[in-house]
Specification:
Blueprint: H1 6-13, H2 15-27, H3 32-42, E1 46-48, H4 56-64, E2 72-75, H5 82-94, E3 99-102, H6 106-115, H7 122-131, H8 135-138, E4 143-145, E5 162-165, E6 168-171, H9 179-188
Parallel strand pairs: 1-4, 2-3, 4-6
Antiparallel strand pairs: 5-6
Amino acid sequence: MSVITSNNANILLNPQLVQLQQLNEKYQSLTPEERIREVYEDLDKILLTSSFGTTAVFLLYLFSRQNIDAPVYFIDTTYHFEETIVYKNKIAQEFNLNVIDVLPDTEMNEMSRKSQIWKHDADLCCSVNKVTPLQDIKKQHKVWISGLMAWQNPFRENLNIFEYSKGMIKFYPLIDVTREELNAHLRIYDLPQHPLKAKGYGSIGCSHCTQKGEGRAGRWAGKQKTECGLHT
């Protein structure tokens, strides 16, 4: 006879947790590409965003192979490196992606620029220019796809393929892809790399909060901050 623990009881009493458990069990044995294909069969109102950073191209490539008629949202904080914008346009054209730019409120963005708010409150800067602009779009969706991978930082290493956060199902089809596997896929598929990667940038966000460094070491260097707030 099976024993119902307190954790199992919580799952049985919460349909949302039951759904997540079933999804995680089903998708565990699938490849990243199979996961992306399958999620559009199993769920609806799916949101895909991309930073067009150093690792984003793999997820976008797998997405493009499915011929899914859905946009890719890019949060244009107005603080991106010029190389990122050029790279975004290149990938969009090469993969035939419908990329939609999401811009912050003009007045709030200008306020952040004049005060250089990132110097004394990086969290508020991210909130104004990255997190808040996506809120209305998120309300139109139930599921959010992101290319987070467990090896990138301590927060991400504890995530499952499916998580439930702030009213949405978060879907991380690449979460268990290792750094070595990612690099192998980039070579095998000969995917175009972000031009700043060769210059020592392991992870790329806004220009004023990004330095050269291995992995995400160059993001908000010298601060306790490790995430912009979109996925936390």
